[in-house]
Specification:
single chain; 183 residues; alpha/beta; two-stranded antiparallel ribbon
Amino acid sequence: MTGRVIILNGVSSAGKTTLARQIQKSAEETWLHIAMDAFIATLPEGREFERDWFPIVELVRGAKRLPCITTERSGAALLEEMRHLVARLAKRGFNVVVDEVADRETIEDYRSKLRSVPSLVVKVDAPLDILNRRERDRGDRIIGLAQEQQARLHKDIDYNLEIETHEQAPEALASKVLSRMGN
């Protein structure tokens, strides 16, 4: 028996983790939650931004300087292993909801690895002013990251479903995603 996979893809502070947890609560069956942030957090604290992993660079966009988290050799290998894990779990019968910040190439890699697995790729987003407010309010975010990611992240990705997290409560959004998944 094959499991199913829901990939929640969005910028920092879009509401992916909240939605993933609500999917777990709302679903009749068990869904594992695999978060890119948690996978990266397996590195020793402070080491994730080192040169070989996920260094932060500063980009200039107009008059603004914005932080950009890059992915280098070791970081890319770690995240590829996460995608392999998601596929292996689904092929063993586990349902998996993935909390990701992925570009088109990464989403295509998921789709390749999940060819035989029922899956859904969901764009999770919110307007920039709300993302900026969430970054400030949470206190544990890199300020400006959502703005930098929003300018490029969703480019050329063919989504199965698009969710705006500011429009409805997490329960309604989880219901929408699960319904689309066939629950």
